[in-house]
Design brief:
heterodimer, A: 548 residues, mainly beta, two-stranded antiparallel ribbon, 32 strands, 5% helix, globular, B: 159 residues, alpha/beta, Glutaredoxin, 5 helices
Chain lengths: 548, 159
C-alpha cells in the first residue's frame, strides 16, 4: 500500500512538472556497514573479542524529495533500514516506509505547513524538532504549523501534532505557541533588541487504572537577545509544570515534580578578538512527548533540546571523554540537574606583530565547568529539594588552548593542549573519575596542483579507566575531489588495542562516496553536543550521498 | 529490487529538474539585522559558503580564502557570504570565531537550517556561486588549494 502511494505521489509530481515549471530538491543518503568478527578487539581479555551481530550487513537509507511550485512546496522522505538499522541506532527503525511528508503554502506574511515539520523556539530549551542521521534523531512533529508575520517586527507561530517515533507516532500530543517581537526595529533603534515568549504543552492520557499524575504538562518560556555593535547578550527562562516521575521506564504514581531552566549568553567581538560566555542551569528538564520515554538511550521523542556546552573537537583522543548534559532527576545519584558554563576566546595576532610573525597567529581558548545542583532527596517519598542557582558536586571541567599558525604559503601548524576532569560515574554510569591531559599537533603541507598532505599526532595521558592513548592520522588529498586517510588510535597502557581505520572519499559536484575499513571504538558518539552510545565493532563502511 | 530500479529512475529524472534557485528567505546577520538572501546576487555573482564552528575543513576554507580576499575583491569583485549552520548549541560561537579570525565576510545565521535544508540538507562545507539568484556552481568538501579553483570558477561568471 505504502509503495503504491509512493508511486502515485511520484507520478503525480512528474505530471505536475511536465505541465508547469516547478523544481525538485532532495537527496539520497546511504550508510552501510558490513560487520566482521574480530578476535583482536578484545577489551575484557577473554580471548574471544568482538563477534559480528546477527545481521552482518546493515544499511540505513534516506531518500528525500521536495517539489516546489510558486507558493507551494510538498515533500516526503522515504527511509529504509535493511535488514536492521546500524549498531547503536534505535532498533524500532527496522523497517522501510515513507517516514515523513509535508505540504507547505507560503504567501506574503502567512506560512502554513500540514504534515511533518521542524522548528525551534528560542534556544530550543522548551522545544526543538530536528533531524540528524548520524545520531538517528528525527523528532519532527506531524500536524499543523502556522506562522504569521503581523508586521516587520512582530510574528507568531502556533502548532499542534504528534511527534515521530521511528515509523509510528508518539502517544502524546504536543502543541505550542511562540511570539517574537523585534523591539529594535519597532522603535527604530541602532541596537537590535528581540524579545520572545513561548508556550509548549504535552497531553498524554494514561492507561493506568488510577493515574495520579498529570496528563497535561505545560511549559512556558521568556527570553531576550540584545545585539550592540561589539557586545551582545541574551537570557532565557523556562518553567515546566509537574510531570510524572519515571523510574525504570515506568511512571511512579503520586510523585511528580516541576522543572526549570535558565540560560545566559554574553559576547564581545571586534576584528581580531572574539569572546563569548554561556551560563546555563537546569533542574528536572527532561521533556518527552511520551512520558515513559524519559531518558531513553536513543534520543527518541524529545520535545526540548539540551546540548552540552563544551569545546567540540575532531581529534580521536579528545573525543573519548566528552561531557553529556545531566538534565534528569536521579535520586540514587542525588542528581536534580546541572549548572555550569563555558568561556570561549578567539584572538588573531596581526601579521608582523611579535605573536603574529609573518603570517599571523590565531589563539583559541576554551574553558568549561559543569556541576550538579545542590539537592537533597527524600527517597521514601520520592520528593526532593534543589535550588537552580546552587553548585554541588563537580561533573566535568576542561581547559583547552589551540594555536594555529601559518608558517609560510605552503605549511601550517595547529597545536592543541587540553586538560580535562571527567566524572565517569555520573556521565556514563561507569566506575571511574578521571583527569586527562591531551596534546595534539596537526601539520598541513600544501603541494602543487591542489594536492596536500596532513599529519596529526595525538596523545592523551589519563589517570584512570583505560589510561594512556596515542593516535596519528595521515591524510593525502590528490585533488579537491579525491582523498585518502589512515588513522590509528592506540590504547597502549591497558588493553594494547589498536583502533585502526583506512579509507578514502571522492566528491564530485553534488555527490560523495566514502569507503573505509577499520575498528570503531565503543562508547558515546557525540555530534553537536548530543551523544548516543555505540558498541565496539569492526567492519567495512560505505557512505553514499547525493543532493539535487 | 523493484524499489531500487524505481528509485534510480526517479533520481535521474529529479536530477534533470534539479533546483537551481535559492528560495525566498530572510536570515539574520551576526549583528541581528535581517538580510534577504535573494537580493544578494542581483546583477553580480557571489559565493555562498556554508560552514559551522565545529567543521574544521569549513574553517580552513574560509581562512584560506581570507588570504587572497582583498586582492580578489579589488580585481574581480569577488564576494563571499558565509552562512553559519550552527544550531542552538554553537550559534553564539559564530560571532566569536568569525570576528576573532578577522574574516572580512558578511556572516549570516541559518540557525534553524531552513536554507541548507532547502538545498537538500547536504554535508558542509558546501560552496555555491550564485548569480541573479541562480545557482551556477556547486561544490562540497574542502581540500587545501581548492580556494584557487574557486577564484578561477568565479571569473567564468563575470559578465
Amino acid at each position: 500500500m505504502k509503495k503504491l502511494l509512493f508511486t502515485a505521489a511520484a507520478i503525480c509530481c512528474l505530471n505536475i512538472s511536465k505541465a508547469q515549471n516547478g523544481n525538485f530538491t532532495g537527496g539520497f543518503e546511504s550508510n552501510s556497514q558490513w560487520y566482521q568478527n574480530d578476535p583482536g578487539l578484545d577489551n575484557d581479555g577473554d580471548g574471544i573479542g568482538i563477534t559480528a551481530p546477527q545481521d552482518q550487513l546493515r544499511s540505513n537509507n534516506y531518500f528525500k524529495l521536495n517539489y516546489n511550485y510558486g507558493k507551494f512546496t510538498a515533500g516526503a522522505q522515504y527511509e529504509m533500514y535493511q535488514p536492521s538499522p546500524l549498531l547503536g541506532y534505535f532498533p524500532g527503525y527496522a523497517d522501510n516506509a515513507i517516514a515523513t511528508f509535508f505540504a507547505n503554502f507560503r504567501h506574503k506574511k502567512l506560512d502554513v505547513t500540514a504534515g511533518n515539520f521542524y522548528d525551534q523556539f528560542g534556544s530550543g530549551l522548551i522545544y526543538r524538532s530536528w533531524e540528524d542521521h548520524t545520531l538517528g534523531v528525527d523528532n519532527s512533529i506531524r500536524g499543523i504549523r502556522v506562522n504569521y508575520q503581523f508586521t516587520d517586527y512582530l510574528e507568531a507561530t502556533g502548532f499542534s501534532g504528534n511527534q515521530r517515533a521511528a515509523f509510528e507516532l508518539s502517544e502524546g500530543t504536543v502543541q505550542g505557541v511562540n511570539t517574537e517581537l523585534d523591539l529594535g526595529s519597532a522603535l527604530n533603534l541602532e541596537t537590535s533588541i528581540r524579545v520572545g515568549a513561548s508556550y509548549v504543552g504535552r497531553y498524554q492520557p494514561s492507561t493506568s487504572p488510577d493515574p495520579n499524575f498529570p496528563a497535561t504538562v505545560n511549559a512556558y518560556s521568556i527570553r531576550s537577545d540584545v545585539f550592540m555593535k561589539a557586545l551582545n547578550f541574551g537570557f532565557e527562562y523556562v518553567y515546566k509544570e509537574p510531570d510524572a516521575f519515571i523510574l525504570g521506564g515506568t511512571a511512579q504514581n503520586g510523585t511528580y515534580s516541576d522543572g526549570r531552566a535558565f540560560l545566559f549568553t554574553a559576547g564581545y567581538a571586534v576584528p581580531g578578538l572574539g569572546v563569548n560566555a554561556v551560563v546555563r542551569s537546569l533542574e528536572n528538564m527532561g521533556f518527552y512527548s511520551d512520558r515513559e520515554q524519559q531518558g531513553n538511550a536513543f534520543l527518541q521523542q524529545t520535545i526540548n533540546f539540551i546540548p552540552g556546552y563544551t569545546k567540540q573537537s575532531s581529534y580521536a583522543v579528545s573525543n573519548i571523554y566528552v561531557y553529556a548534559p545531566q538534565a534528569l532527576l536521579s535520586p540514587a545519584e542525588n542528581k536534580a540537574g546541572e549548572i555550569g558554563g563555558q568561556l570561549d576566546v578567539v584572538y588573531t595576532a596581526k601579521k608582523g606583530s611579535l605573536l603574529g610573525g609573518e603570517k599571523g597567529t590565531t589563539f583559541s581558548f576554551n574553558y568549561s565547568n559543569w556541576s550538579g545542583l545542590e539537592a537533597s532527596f527524600d527517597l521514601a517519598n520520592n520528593t526532593y529539594e534543589a535550588s537552580l542557582f546552587s553548585r554541588g558536586e563537580r561533573y566535568f571541567e576542561e581547559y583547552s588552548l589551540e594555536v594555529y599558525k601559518k608558517i609560510n604559503d605552503r605549511f601550517s601548524v595547529k597545536l592543541t593542549g587540553t586538560q580535562t576532569y571527567y566524572d565517569g560515574i555520573i556521565i556514563e554510569g561507569a566506575t571511574f573519575r578521571l583527569n586527562g591531559t591531551a596534546i595534539v599537533g596537526d601539520f598541513l603541507y600544501e603541494l602543487e596542483d591542489g594536492k596536500s598532505m596532513r599529519l596529526d599526532l595525538q596523545h592523551l595521558a589519563a589517570d584512570a579507566d583505560r589510561g594512556n592513548w596515542a593516535a596519528a592520522t595521515l591524510e593525502y588529498a590528490f585533488s579537491s575531489s579525491l582523498s585518502i586517510y589512515a588513522l590509528d588510535l592506540y590504547n597502549y597502557s591497558e588493553t594494547d588495542i589498536h583502533y585502526y581505520s583506512l579509507g578514502g572519499s571522492y566528491t564530485k559536484g553534488r555527490s560523495r562516496i566514502a569507503l573505509n575499513f577499520g575498528r570503531q571504538r565503543g562508547g558515546l558518539i557525540c555530534v553537536g553536543g548530543v551523544c548516543r552510545f555505540v558498541p565496539e565493532n569492526t567492519g567495512f563502511t560505505l557512505n553514499l550521498s547525493t543532493n539535487f | 529490487m523493484k524499489q531500487l530500479i524505481f528509485l534510480t529512475a526517479f533520481l535521474s529524472f529529479a536530477f534533470a529538474k534539479a533546483q537551481t534557485e535559492l528560495p525566498e528567505l530572510i536570515l539574520r546577520n551576526i549583528s541581528g539585522k535581517k538580510v534577504n538572501i535573494q537580493q544578494l546576487s542581483e546583477g553580480t555573482p557571489i559565493v555562498f559558503s556554508f560552514w559551522a564552528t565545529w567543521c574544521t575543513p569549513c574553517m580552513r576554507e574560509l581562512d584560506a580564502i581570507k588570504e587572497h580576499y582583498s586582492y580578489q575583491q579589488k580585481e574581480f569583485g569577488f564576494e563571499v557570504v558565509a552562512i553559519a549552520t550552527d544550531d542552538a548549541r554553537t550559534k553564539q560561537r559564530v560571532k566569536t570565531e568569525s570576528m576573532g579570525r578577522n574574516w572580512p565576510y558578511e556572516i549570516l545565521l541559518d540557525t534553524k537550517n531552513v536554507l541548507i535544508r532547502s538545498l537538500g540538507n547536504p554535508q558542509i562545507p558546501l560552496t555555491l556561486i550564485v548569480k541573479n539568484n541562480k545557482i551556477v556552481y556547486r561544490h562540497s568538501s574542502f581540500t587545501p588549494g581548492a580556494e584557487l579553483e574557486l577564484f578561477e570558477e568565479f571569473k567564468k561568471h563575470l559578465d
